[in-house]
Amino acid sequence: MFKKKEQMKFYSLEEIKSKNATYNMIYGERSNGKSYSALDEILKNYCKTGKQGAIIRRYHEDFRGKRGASIFAPLVQNRLVIDYTQGEWTGIFYYSGRWFLSKEDENGKIIKQEDPFCYAFALTDTEHDKSTSYPNVTTILFDEFLTRSGYLPDEFVLFMNTLSTIIRYRDDVKIYMLGNTVNRYCPYFDEMGLKHIRNQQKGTIDVYSYGESGLTVAVEYADSPVKKKPSDKYFAFDNPKLEMITGGAWEIALYPHCPVKFRPKDIKFIFFIKFEETLLQCEVVMFDKYNFIFIHEKTTELKHPEKDLIFDTNYNPLYNYGRKLTTPTNKIQKRIAEYFVNDKVFYQDNVVGEVVRNYFEWSKTDRLL
What we know:
With 369 residues, the protein is α/β, with parallel strands linked by helices. The protein is 24% helix and 25% strand. It has helices at residues 14-17, 34-49, 66-69, 73-77, 80-84, 126-129, 155-167, 187-191, 243-246, 331-341, 350-365, and strands at residues 23-28, 52-57, 91-95, 98-104, 110-112, 118-122, 137-143, 174-180, 205-209, 216-221, 267-275, 278-287, 290-297, 309-312, 321-322, 345-347. Strands 1, 2, 3, 4, 5, 6, 7, 8, 9 and 10 form a ten-stranded mixed β-sheet that branches. A six-stranded mixed β-sheet has the order 15-14-11-12-13-16.
């Protein structure tokens, strides 16, 4: 006799919805049902109340052609459109940044509902969307807000402008921000004041409030619905970067560690990198035939902040401060940049390497106002 196959469990919005927060940020392992659950919320809400949804992505290309047409496909395959509309509609039709309930007539022709139930918004198209009104949108999904490939310049402001276009003067909109654990260093964390997110425990929900404003942000580090999946065997290599796929751990690349021991007298120059809340001490080491930079986290205060060379993402008028190591302004900074170009940099651990990687990603996207 065959055993009945256990049904796969997926993420549910129910617990975070109970917090009744304005923003609902959910991050965890990929393919655990986060996006499906949020899309289901949009579809179900429209079929019950007539209120529409909006999906935000970073680029217009994320909605182009089959990418846009396939977003709601799993819900159609699971017959949710039929269930929610009592058979009145059977599918979903995508056209020009809008999703419509649809069905086929007896001749196979697609008939779509007159009004869309959901709209697409790209952060790169913010300026083009300002003139249109969306008074019936009450659920907004920003999918894949976490990325390792770099953020847009002033992306948080672009996101706020997009929300402003949709919300206008209302206060009945719920916002869901979904991401896979691909990058612990995300500008949204600092911009939104999420101070404890990098140390948050899996399976917990933290709620942030902001004075008397009434604004609340619920942040969930989604636990794995299933501790061990049949597909895990495909990612069982001894590689820490794959733990974000199998268990929802933060993705961290492998970075070169210092291959030799050195003494304090071998350190010829020290400078610092300040990225978000992390301060890194960078030491130029020279002895015998060795010449490299070693970077480690600095856990104490700077002794000479008015004299030390400091690369800081924030603006500072002091002469010893710089912002982008990638755009050196004097001989010392140019010499430092050469170490990175020539791969002569070693790290205390992979976490420190990840901070530096994100600092350089920021350097590519940041621009002068």
